[in-house]
Amino acid sequence: MSTAKLQPLPAILIANDLLTGDTVFFTGDGWTRHPGEALLAGDEAASIRLEAAGQEAMQLNRVVDAYLVDVVLSEGGIPVPRHFRERFRLLGPTIRPDLGKQAEFPGLAAQAGRTR
Amino acid sequence: MYRYDEFDAAFVRDRVAQFSAQVQRRLAGALTEDEFKPLRLQNGVYLQLHAYMLRIAIPYGTLSARQLRQLALIGERFDRSYGHFTTRQNLQFNWIQLKDVPEILALLADVEMHAIQTSGNCIRNVTADQFAGVAADEIEDPRPVAELIRQWSTAHPEFSFLPRKFKIAVTGAAEDRAAVSVHDIGLRIVRHPETGETGYAVLVGGGLGRTPMVGKWVRDFLPKPHLLAYLEALMRVYNAEGRRDNKYKARVKILVHEIGIEAFRDRVEAEFAQLDPLRIQADAAEVGRIERYFAPPAYAELQDNPPALRRARAANPEFDRWVAQNGFPHKVPGYQAVTLSLKGIGEAPGDITSAGMRLVAELADRHSFGEIRVTHAQNLVLPNVRQDELFDLWHALAAGGLATANAGLITDIIACPGLDYCALATARSIPIAQALATRFAAPDRQQEIGPLAIKISGCINACGHHHVGHIGILGLEKRGEESYQITLGGDAGNASAIGEILGPGLGADEVPDAIERLLAVYLDHRQPGELFVDSVRRLGIQPFKAAFNAELRHDAA
Known about the structure:
The structure holds 2 protein chains of 2 kinds. In chain A, about 30% of the residues lie in helices and about 25% in strands. Chain A is of the alpha+beta class. Chain A has a domain of about 70 residues. A 5-stranded antiparallel β-sheet of chain A has the order 3-2-1-4-5. The longest helix of chain A has 16 residues. The longest helix of chain B has 22 residues. Chains A and B meet through helix 2 of A and helix 15 of B.
């Protein structure tokens, strides 16, 4: 019997781009660097599809280390991870607001509610 | 400084070509991530939270101005125009793209640098006292032997797949500034009590991480020509008997702990007895070739404390404070080694911009025979500065924001990259360091507190050496939040010790006040001239623990 624990929902699929190492998010038909474009899995069937997409992308050597992250949708429409580790990953180093996605996408940090 | 011979140069170029081909095969899909990962790690490439990270070896913390300029260039061209110096005297770039790594490695090879064995289960970069060759308290320069070990251990066929990583540190000085007792092997250059001959005292089984241990003496005196054979015997015992079933119990410290230092010593000596030391040791010509590269530079004949220095110190209190705090006694009259603090208040410990690197390189050329050192405390050193040029140097450094007068003080904090960058981290380190440095920024307050080493790690792996901080801070996760465990009484020096945990973990906001409470106990109870860590030793941990926990109970009530 499977002992795998249920993936908390909603969830997004997060990975590192093979070529650049950049944190990327699955959109449903590709990968994006903007978390606001991530596909949100709201039920178990959708999360299973996301996970399969991650496996496939790793096999195709498009991304590395793909896994699901459970999120809360912010008022600004950004899926914000519940865990602080993934939140830092989403926005960039908290000590360097001039670097990472928080710098690259103006307004992202505010849209994400800047939950540190 | 050591210069590559034709074999070194060819070896490094070959490795660049080999790894470039591996990267191409990975990008073409011919290698899976599982196949590629051990290859990239052997070449210093990690995958972190936001990007790949490249860890570049700086053997025994010695850099030339030319090399530092090349690092500045790499930072600008391939990273975000800064780098991070680590507690193993290496440099890390945080924003590297995999496709660029071959080109970066080629640029490193151009200046006799590489990233080989900065990761993986092999013998890592050999570290040393940052004041090697210039310290007034030194018996002998440890860099020639560190270089010898580097050459011996690089791609050593027998020791390339050890049970776990293996770190060696060397010092030739009376005072241990290289934390040798918390390395897998610590070497101290010592004089034989009867003959006066120099050789090595050998410590084994030190280490930090999840099972911190202070190394134990395995040999009081090892004659120099026996070194490589003895290391081979020791590594062979570890390689054969170190655990491979559990990576958390795979370091040599666990083997030494489990079988005991006597049994470990017996096994090493039995193995050593089978070897022919003179066959294994590099021949005298090669040892001499290496040693000549570390010959002292052409020092001028000068007097200590020249009038120009005295006048400048008298006229400028800030300069005077910097010389007093960041200067270090040089063995040659009229010279001084100086620490360039990478701990500006509010900055990330160990970080320096490409512009900063260029400035340091230029000043090294102008004032220090083109040589720079990296300290395990994440600062830089100019080892050979004329005392009558210190004022000019200070002016130039101050203009570049590199003249913070805090070497060894409470704001000279070691911190790993932590969860702002590192995929292994469980909590952030750098913001804690920044908050503490900001809290204790006032120069007079720092002077009043005196020498104090705060060391912060963002996970149990202890890259930030928290166990040997006078005050150690370990970032963990507790119930979905970052939580910081405080330890007291650690020491990385001659009186090496592992700190004791004071109480329950704190939220990040509570850390500065908790440190204030510990300092209050010290300031109330210290004897004249007594350092923080000495007060902790004399008083014991209890009064500090009481102050630490009393307030917590009060808060909870």
